[in-house]
Write a structure and sequence with these properties.
246 residues, 6-stranded parallel sheet, 9 helices, 6 strands, 11% strand
Length: 246
């Protein structure tokens, strides 16, 4: 259970949190691809997704001026090449449709969640701590939410990435605050909650579907083991819930 009496700031993750509301991007993109490519093997797509992320981490493909649609188009082109090499027929048109639909989903989520964060900002300082590609400012600006955040701590800029706790410490430092008066908000127990609480933050874990969950294109719930949650982490299932807790 959170202790909120002395809280002064909220530090939000971006990817999987503000842009999707708790879904790992694997689970956003797979259904969109599967709409275009019925019967797409989720195991093959998981490999394509992972290959794309490794490629983007290894090569300077994303430019600082790229907005989110630019990023998606580059990411999906890498995924499509992998799929084609594994005998999955997909076209440039498929890539474009998936990119446009995913961008609209992210835009809608960012607009919706920005209203929640603006309400919280009336009482707390608000920052962002994110693993990203060096273009996060351009992405936030394109989505119209860059001015909501007093500081943005981006892995590609500061040279530290999650799950290293140091990036969360840098986020606290950027606000001029001790971790003890900050709450971290993110969708990953391993990359967000554990490192943030290790330096003294409290955590709000946005529970959705993570990388470890099997991608599916239709409705359905998967059974999984529930992790033991430390007392300084509280589960939430939507960002709207934060307004009822603080």
């Amino acid at each position: 259970m959170l202790h909120t009496d002395n809280i002064q700031a909220l530090l939000f993750d971006f990817g999987g949190t503000i842009d999707t509301g708790g879904l790992h991007w694997l689970h956003v993109l797979y259904p969109l691809w599967e709409d275009r490519l019925p019967g797409l093997d989720p195991g093959i797509y998981r490999q394509a997704f992972a290959h794309g992320e490794r490629t983007l981490a290894r090569e300077r493909i994303i430019l600082p001026t790229d907005n989110f649609l630019d990023l998606l188009e580059k990411k999906l082109a890498i995924q499509a090449t992998f799929l084609q090499e594994n005998k999955v027929a997909c076209t440039i048109r498929d890539q474009k449709v998936v990119a446009d639909e995913a961008y609209q989903e992210a835009l809608d989520n960012c607009q919706q969640h920005s209203l929640i964060i603006k309400r919280l900002k009336q009482k707390y300082k608000v920052g962002m701590v994110s693993n990203f590609y060096g273009n996060l400012h351009a992405v936030l600006e394109d989505f119209g939410i860059v001015d909501i955040f007093e500081t943005v701590t981006e892995s590609a800029v500061v040279g530290v990435k999650k799950p290293d706790p140091q990036i969360w410490q840098l986020g606290c430092d950027s606000l001029g605050l001790s971790p003890s008066v900050c709450i971290a908000v993110g969708d990953s127990l391993i990359k967000d909650m554990q490192p943030a609480t290790a330096i003294g933050c409290q955590g709000l874990w946005l529970r959705g579907k993570g990388w470890e969950d099997e991608p599916i294109s239709g409705p359905g719930e998967q059974q999984r083991d529930e992790p033991e949650i430390p007392v300084d982490i509280q589960s939430i299932y939507s960002l709207e819930q934060i307004t009822t807790l603080l």
